[in-house]
Amino acid sequence: MDSLELLEEHRLFNGWQQRYRHDSGSLNCAMTFSVYLPPTADDAPPPLLYWLSGLTCSDENFATKAGAQRVASELGLALVIPDTSPRGENVPNDEAYDLGQGAGFYLNATQPPWDRNYRMYQYISEELPELMHSHFNCNGRQAIAGHSMGGHGALVIGMRNAAQYSSISAFAPIVNPSQVPWGRKAFSAYLGDDETTWRAYDSCALIARPGPKVPVLIDQGDNDQFLADQLQPARLAELARQHDWPLTLRIQAGYDHSYYTIATFIEDHLRFHAAHLGL
Ligand SMILES: N[C@@H](CCC(=O)N[C@@H](CSC=O)C(=O)NCC(=O)O)C(=O)O
């Protein structure tokens, strides 16, 4: 069994907020992640909600800013909060905030120099669930959520692995990365110029594929500075309508791209996932 090093532990709403380091085989580097274990974790194993954060984030942004733990404690829902990319001196990086460390885009890179470490798709969909189920007392059920780049990650990983996740939710997700500047820059670097390979990581392409349809909830602020150029969730909502995918898009008047928006509506997302996880 892979070993975990406990870095921090705090009592929180009668449960535990913890931070761990481990050596990732998918990413070829040491990784840090956070978990919130609700107070019922010892006697009734909880389901897991994975939270994928956005550009420039580590595991600490959601853990410290979203205020999700009070309701997670009440519901008996464990939170798993990974970092957003491989990290370290030996991991390739870029000076820009939207490429390299802090900007892994939840894909498996195929292009040098990124391909040795930038395998966040495999890390989130395979390695981390295996780690969680071997080290923690959890009931086997999972859901996935995220913000912006992490909303893209939650949609792509949830849609491609419908048997693993009961529900998907996102705040201000990059729904069509193949067609917007953040996604085109990252996909060109990580996946190369053949845009047909990009479709496996684009929720607007994945939603048209046959197969099980995991329910989706999206919140989008209409005062988000990235809405027009990078996000445009209405594109995904229209495709969902055309393909009978159960997707709810809520436009929140006056809200922006920040964690203040996430803190306002995270309770709705936790209750949405809890209902689908059988809590
Ligand atoms: N240029 C900005 C962009 C960084 C930013 O806004 N990051 C967001 C996610 S954006 C999409 O993935 C974020 O969550 N930031 C962290 C936070 O705690 O707010 C910049 O460099 O600041």
From TrEMBL:
Top enzyme category: hydrolase
An example Gene Ontology biological process: formaldehyde catabolic process
Name used for this protein in its record: S-formylglutathione hydrolase
Family matches, as SUPFAM superfamilies: alpha/beta-Hydrolases (SSF53474)
Record-listed E.C. numbers: 3.1.2.12
Function: Serine hydrolase involved in the detoxification of formaldehyde.
One Gene Ontology MF term: carboxylic ester hydrolase activity
The keyword Hydrolase is annotated on this UniProt entry: yes
Reaction equations catalysed: S-formylglutathione + H2O = formate + glutathione + H(+)
Keyword check for Iron-sulfur: no
Cellular-component GO terms for this entry: cytosol
Entries under Gene3D superfamilies matching the protein: alpha/beta hydrolase
Species: Enterobacillus tribolii
Family: Belongs to the esterase D family.
Residues at the active site: 148 (charge relay system), 224 (charge relay system), 257 (charge relay system)
Pfam families given in the database record: Esterase
Keywords associated with the record: Hydrolase, Serine esterase
